[in-house]
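explain this.
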Amino acid sequence: MSLQETYKKKIAPELQKEFDIKNINAVPAIKQITVNVGLGIGLKEAKYLETAENTLRRITGQQPVKTKARKSIANFKIRQGNVVGMKVTLRGPRMWDFLDKLINVTFARIRDFRGLSPKSFDAQGNYSVGFSEHIAFPEIRSDEIEVIHGLQVNIETTAKNSEQAKSLLTHLGFPFKKA
């Protein structure tokens, strides 16, 4: 059974009881997942830009969108309109497939992994997790890596607060540290 089916058949009814929600459509759900890479030190290197783009394409199965600087910052040598990052927004079946892979494969491949921080929720119930190395994802083969970079995964939920969002992600199988 896929993660999406498990959510609909088991997790949503459990959350409905847990938070005493009358309407099943008001139960917290995953809205979208955004995966992004900030280019940082690789702004001037074409190889870094190309590597980040290929990484995002392989990990998510979608073409990344280049994000541009909104204003110039002299100290960082950034001009307005420069490409400063890349992102991919996942929704629907691709989002559920990515989430399943993230929970069951990627977290297990992280070196010295001791669980996710329960403090990475915002007030609206969204969760962010950062990876210092992109090699934790199964699509990336370690023998063909030239540049290692980090990436950020943001999970946007329909939860009203961080408590509901944490319960949703815990039911889905996110390995949180004990507080």
